[in-house]
Please model this.
Amino acid sequence: MNIPQQGLSKEEILNTLQAFKARDMDWRAGKVWCYVYNPGEDPAEVTREAYLSFLSENGLDPTVFPSLLKLETEVVRATINLLRGDSNAVGHLTTGGTESIMLAVKTARDKARAEHPEITQPEMVLPKTAHAAFHKAAHYLSVKPVVVDIDPQTFKVRAEAMQAAITPDTILLVASAPSYSQGVIDPIGEIGKLAREKNLLFHVDACVGGLHLSFMRKLGYDVPDFDFTVRGVTSISTDLHKYGYAAKGCSAIMYRSKELRKYQIFACTDTTGYTLINPTMLSSKTGGPMAGAWAILNFLGEDGYKRIVRDVQEATRKLIDGINGLDDLQVLGEPAMCMFSFKSDTINVYQLADEMSKRGWYIQGQFSTPLTPRNLHLSVSQGTVQTVDALLDDLRECVGIVKSKPAIDSNAIRAMVAASLQGPDPEAAFSQLAANTGLAGTELPTEMALINEVLDALPDELCNVFLVNYFNDLYV
Ligand SMILES: Cc1ncc(COP(=O)(O)O)c(C=O)c1O
Model:
């Protein structure tokens, strides 16, 4: 678009924006099983109003906006208390799990730079199930990711495998509570012990679990210690904008002490401009997410969260039993909370996701790895509990539909992918592959099964290049 010569009316603008959403998946109807955490109408309205009331305030400078200092420190303190940190624990609010994780890695890197200048290529040890944000952090911050295999039955990393990966250049250990892919909690206690023995920093990614698991514990569910009560844990990330049901743009990065947190903060007076002190990645930032998070914590209260967590856990149980009750689908591992994945040995799960999509459901496909089969992921939340029965009914019917259709020939696709990578010009081969697959240009694909099949067949490094090329073309 070009900026119009004369501005449009508020009505025209809002109607047009609304029309842009025509092809979006219907999360309000509880049909999107990831990405959106809907607390229900009343809490969402309170959050929205709180968010908008701080839209223009700037988190860049707490001396000008002490309100934001108060909001941030109160939300962080409430989260630390839930994660059983003591009064020495501190933290900050960030824009999301990725930023929190990147800051945890930066803190570890800069502490190592200060205390171990002999380490020229710092390394962090992470399970294969760790979120991609750690790889992004590694990429941005020049820290080498040392990836450790998981147990293919439990999908948890073994502490001994973490230990074996430690070298004199290790600066950080990482584990998840829980991991996104299969929703299981790594052995945090054992890895914490290892971290103490080796005098290493240990970050727990509780982006999805920090709040939900803590309320499960308070409700009496059997939840292993994963928080600051584990003595070796030195930092934790917990997203308010996931199972805290806050508006997006809010996560907490927390450290056991200020001594450690100081490596996160960046200050710069070496310019002609204003003094810059940034504890997080952004400089100018809206106060909206902080106010939104403060509002929802106070609106729901402990009782509200406990009610949600109980409902979500009951829905999860029903869903897991229902899926395992279908002959063709099996839930992977023993999920610790309300996120899990399921596989099939008889049908192509990507085709199943496409069939479900025709009925308005969004279910995320996850690729296979040497230790995990291809699978579909579900994150149950307050906004989806009411559609569990409908989802199970449609899953049952769609499995039948997929079985009655010709299956995608995975072997033929693998052969096609392998052949196309043999040629002398890899870029041309990629373009051809993208065109054959339907993942090219600026049109969004309507069916994903074939695309996922091809992506699953590509080696990881090539798959990443393929996807980078795709996005490079998609956003014109
Ligand atoms: C375990 C885990 N860590 C980190 C992240 C990244 O969070 P965000 O998408 O808020 O950056 C996610 C996102 O789903 C996650 O599941």
About this structure: The first strand starts at residue 90 and ends at 94.
